[in-house]
Description:
The protein is mainly alpha-helical. The protein has helices at about 25-40, 50-55, 60-65, 70-90, 100-120, 120-125, 135-165, 180-200, 205-220; strands at about 230, 235-239. About 60% of the residues lie in helices and about 0% in strands. A hairpin with a 5-residue loop joins strand 1 and strand 2 (about 235-239).
Amino acid sequence: MSTPTSPTDRPRRRRPYAPRVPITERREQLLDAALALIVSDGYGRVSIDAIAKRAQVARSVVYGAFDDLDALLLALLDRQQERAFTRLLATVPDPLRTGDPVGFACEAVHRMAAMLREDPDTWRLILLTPATTPPAVHARIEADRERFRRRVVSWMESAAAAADGPAPASAPAPAPAPDPEVLAHALVASAEHFARLALSSPGAIDATRLAGQLRLLLGGIWPTPSGAYEETPEGAPRA
């Protein structure tokens, strides 16, 4: 005759055990889980508990890989921005390509649009950050924004110098010249606005339409040389 068992005598159900893996592999797993969580639920739902649940590990495993949530999010931003920022810098024309600055700027619009289509999750992480994002993450994004802005300033200064050329000895007093610092702030802010729009409302404004308006704006600063860059009906740049 068997002896009845009490609820306390029954074997306890253990939580799934996270197998040991190299720390670098574990960090990548947790960063992937954090990115997936941000994309699906937004920054506001990100926590150590939520990341552990998404990765199917215990909280202690997360804390074994990262000191705290800020450290994890900074590591995620570092990983994603390493390739994203390199790609972003490549969209700005080389400072030596000054023959048609308006055309090259329009070309950059198409490059940026392609960049957003190919890796939207990374750009959501960078551009769609709410007020609740940790300050350290905001600071990192702002630092990279400034690096990009400096690249735009450098390109505009080179383009302006090439367009001006040496002034004749009897030249009249010059008209107010374009200010690369001011224009770079305006262009970068506009680029971010339309990038956010592309991420949140795909198809709202296509790259060809945007590049056409940019041509109108910048054409007042730098006249377009004959036979220079123009766009096909499909929006692909061509020389």
